[in-house]
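Quick log. Single chain, no ligands specified.
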Amino acid sequence: MASRWATSGVLAAGLVALACGSGFSQDASTCSTVALTDPPRTAYRCAGGLVIEAEASAELRIAAPASDGLPDSVDLTGKAALVDLPVRRDFQIRTPHAIAAVRGTLYAVDVADGSTSVFVVRGRVEVSETDGAGSVALGPGEGVDVAPGKALVVRRWPEPRVRGLLSRFGR
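-> predicted structure:
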């Protein structure tokens, strides 16, 4: 199934490119944004090839660019975001429960009341608890649920759960 989603990064870039004519705007984080439909979400295209898709009601903030001009983190406090980072460089999604750190990958992070779920489509992601108590490494098709006081357990996610999460991003 991982191969089925291997082209999702290209799809994300393609969706952003197709939408370009309909009005990208530049925000303070140096990322261009566009509203996407089916399902409703916002795509952020940032320097260095980074593409972030956020659910319409997602609560996220893209950190100010690092000294090299490239954003290096996102704070996500509600709902889900899909991240495509095709270039090998450091990047983090920080939630109230977890930090997902990557180098060149496609993955989703979903924040709910009391927990954060991380799923990897392509590449590798290191997920750690915000208090530093534990960390795990995820590969393609693997996910973890992070909640205070619970052990981090890497699992191969069943296809219905993967479809449910990725369908929120039109995949």
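The chain has one domain: 2-169.
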